[in-house]
What we know:
Radius of gyration of chain A: 30 Å
Structural class of chain A: alpha/beta
Order of helices and strands of chain A: HEEHEEHHEEHHHHHHHHHHH
Helix content of chain A: 55-70%
Helix content of chain B: 25-40%
Shape of chain A: elongated
Shape of chain B: elongated
Number of helices of chain A: 15
CATH class of the largest domain in chain B: Alpha Beta
Oligomer: heterodimer
CATH superfamily of the largest domain in chain B: P-loop containing nucleotide triphosphate hydrolases
Strand content of chain B: 25-35%
CATH topology of the largest domain in chain B: Rossmann fold
Structural class of chain B: alpha/beta
Strand order of the largest sheet of chain B: 6-7-8-3-9-10
Order of helices and strands of chain B: EEEHEEEHHHEHEHEEHEEEHEH
Amino acid sequence: xxxxxxxxxxxxxxxxxxxxxxxxxxxxxxxxxxxxxxxxxxxxxxxxxxxxxxxxxxxxxxxxxxxxxxxxxxxxxxxxxxxxxxxxxxxxxxxxxxxxxxxxxxxxxxxxxxxxxxxxxxxxxxxxxxxxxxxxxxxxxxxxxxxxxxxxxxxxxxxxxxxxxxxxxxxxxxxxxxxxxxxxxxxxxxxxxxxxxxxxxxxxxxxxxxxxxxxxxxxxxxxxxxxxxxxxxxxxxxxxxxxxxxxxxxxxxxxxxxxxxxxxxxxxxxxxxxxxxxxxxxxxxxxxxxxxxxxxxxxxxxxxxxxxxxxxxxxxxxxxxxxxxxxxxxxxxxxxxxxxxxxxxxxxxxxxxxxxxxxxxxxxxxxxxxxxxxxxxxxxxxxxxxxxxxxx
Amino acid sequence: xxxxxxxxxxxxxxxxxxxxxxxxxxxxxxxxxxxxxxxxxxxxxxxxxxxxxxxxxxxxxxxxxxxxxxxxxxxxxxxxxxxxxxxxxxxxxxxxxxxxxxxxxxxxxxxxxxxxxxxxxxxxxxxxxxxxxxxxxxxxxxxxxxxxxxxxxxxxxxxxxxxxxxxxxxxxxxxxxxxxxxxxxxxxxxxxxxxxxxxxxxxxxxxxxxxxxxxxxxxxxxxxxxxxxxxxxxxxxxxxxxxxxxxxxxxxxxxxxxxxxxxxxxxxxxxxxxxxxxxxxxxxxxxxxxxxxxxxxx
Lengths: 392, 298
């Protein structure tokens, strides 16, 4: 998990090579004002060199050639497509210079203009039962989003793992050997609980690894970050984010969040994996699962899509109902939780989730015990319905 | 100790509109080999699954060893299903040990018994192999070991010989006979009628969910005798008194049916006058004949 976050950041930081841009201009209006940046270095060249470069660009040491004719005509020559970031950086710099010149001509003092620029941050405070706590909508948003995605991923990953296990036992024909020793229900629940434990172990390992890696990353990156961003404005912004992060985390009940995460992960997983197991038992090969998988995944995908609207209005009607219905509550409730949810609502949702997974397990077990003994018969929904009605 | 290891009374199993078993009654004598016969889809596998408590009957009772069959009895029953297999990625030793322990055997005892059987079949070197490395016949041997490992009182084999070559069929058949000698009762279903005649003491023939024939194999064969004799003699155009009816004649091989009040000796006497008798034999029906006749009469 930590790798997923750190690696791209690291690579993105590595990607900034310094590039030298040749600059040709008849006078020195722009060239005197164009300043070098972290990764762009401007070199003014005489006219004869321009011709040489244009003849054989690859022989020149430059990344690109910027030809400035007047304040409206700029051309960037290169022997390959210039990167978007380089192009936009140059555009920004040039328009900045022109803007300043226009302001100056209009008689506006640049020093006043710089004094006008402001940055504000609205402090949000939640007045709860335990007094006032500092809130931060952005952080809640981030945490809710993360939790929702993780639950969605886990249910899918481990649910299909259960389904594959059932199909494997069926296609290898060991299932009848085993159920002459244990009850079909025991075999199914054993599989589901076994995979759940695998999931929890994996989750624990991720947390531990993330903590270790992020500790390393902090040491590794933050030093370079503070050195390279010594300019005051950026530094200020940085510390603002950091301080708001720590204060706003205090507004979120971490313990409740962690407990709920494990609860909704297990509850959602148990609810769905029973259905996945039933699908696995009804087919002979994984290729046949499509038609049965779709209705199972629809509520999952709906909750995934509706994460954004729910976060925009975490106390709305949509958010409320989706976080109560057991099929969508594991994802949606986790999205809502960081914004604060009524305890009574949370308990109702949890209770319904327990009822929900007991119900799906009961139904799935009925399909499962008939399905695992059926070979070479293409099951239909009608067939599954019949299996539900069989006794014993 | 009751004489029958298993009694099935009035077993009914219905799947939706389909009646898989229709009031089936069976009695399996202790220490015998019991052949469960019937055409495909007759309900044999359903019955075996009910005995193994994989599925429950809708109606009827099962008496095992004198008492109603209960969950704990599964450790006294060994079942080799027709659709059988093993975990392909698991090692042979590990897997057999797991399956033996699933039947309630303690670890050490299971290990000891497994080593005994592996030595007996000379397959000890397979212990650390993965199942997917074995041939089908090899895997079948492992499955046989797993079925008998916990020394159950009752063994149930569904088509035990399918997938075996003749050498292995002989090995497994001998093992089944030896288990019988040791006092184990064996139920087995097969389509190979010659092996039924060879090893079964009793049979039951099931068709369309009903028992249509049940009893000791000798008695059944006796019941199906229809007084037909195969005779070969060097006479063409044989004519006989009217109590002897010639059914067919191919190259002087005659099939002759004698009427109820006549005997085989009378037939012999009648034949001696007609020419030289080369062979004379009562045509006793094979299990195959009986099977076909009984199913068709249904």
